[in-house]
Amino acid sequence: MRKWVIIVIGLIFAFSATGLALAQEKAKPAEPAKAPEAVKPAEPVKPAEPAKPEEVAKPAEAKKEAPKPVMYRMGGIVKALDPAAKKITLEQDRVKKERKVTLTVGKKAAKNLAGISVGDVVNVSVTGKTVTTLTKVY
Q1: pTM of the predicted model, to two decimals?
Q2: How would you classify the pairing of strands 87-93 and 71-82?
Q3: What's the start-to-end Cα distance of the chain, in Å?
Q4: CA of 123: how far to CAs of 13, 75, 80, 136, in Å?
Q5: What does the domain layout of the chain look like in residue ranges?
Q6: Which of the four, 13, 41, 79, 86, has the lowest number of CB atoms within 10 Å?
Q7: What gap in Å lies between CA 124 and CA 66, rounded to an integer?
């Protein structure tokens, strides 16, 4: 019984490997060479005109758009809290890495700031370095 299972698995592997080889595109036949057409004389090259100062300034005026800030969720323990300055410092413990992050609290999240104290565990949504939502876990 074991031999049959090994044979079936071997056949499945062989067919799957050949199936990939057969799925490739076939080479297209080369087109026959065409007779060259009559060669036309090259047109004379016109000298380039000097650039106007207004045209040179345009590329410098083009403003690059700033990338949109990334929105992400994070959680941690509140280590410092400054309601007057709307700042919160969170500490995150990971297996190989600890980090402290100081963030600015946005207008909507500032409403929940009154119910938070140092040592609380919170979940926050952050856009850039601004807290958009603040939720106390325990």
Answers
A1: 0.50
A2: antiparallel
A3: 59
A4: 49, 4, 15, 6
A5: 71-136
A6: 41
A7: 24
Q: Domain 71-136 sits in which CATH superfamily?
A: Nucleic acid-binding proteins (2.40.50.140)
Instruction: Report the pLDDT averaged over residues 111-121.
Output: 91
pLDDT tens profile 67-90: 888 888 999 999 999 999 999 999
C-alpha closest to that of 104 among 91, 113, 116, 115: 113
Contacts of 104 (CB under 8 A, 6+ apart): 86, 87, 129, 130, 131
Residues written for the chain: 138
Residues with Cβ within 8 Å of residue 136, at least 6 apart in sequence = 112, 115, 116, 120, 121, 122
The answer to whether the CB of 71 falls within 8 A of the CB of 132 is yes
Inter-residue contact 94 to 86 (CB < 8 Å): no
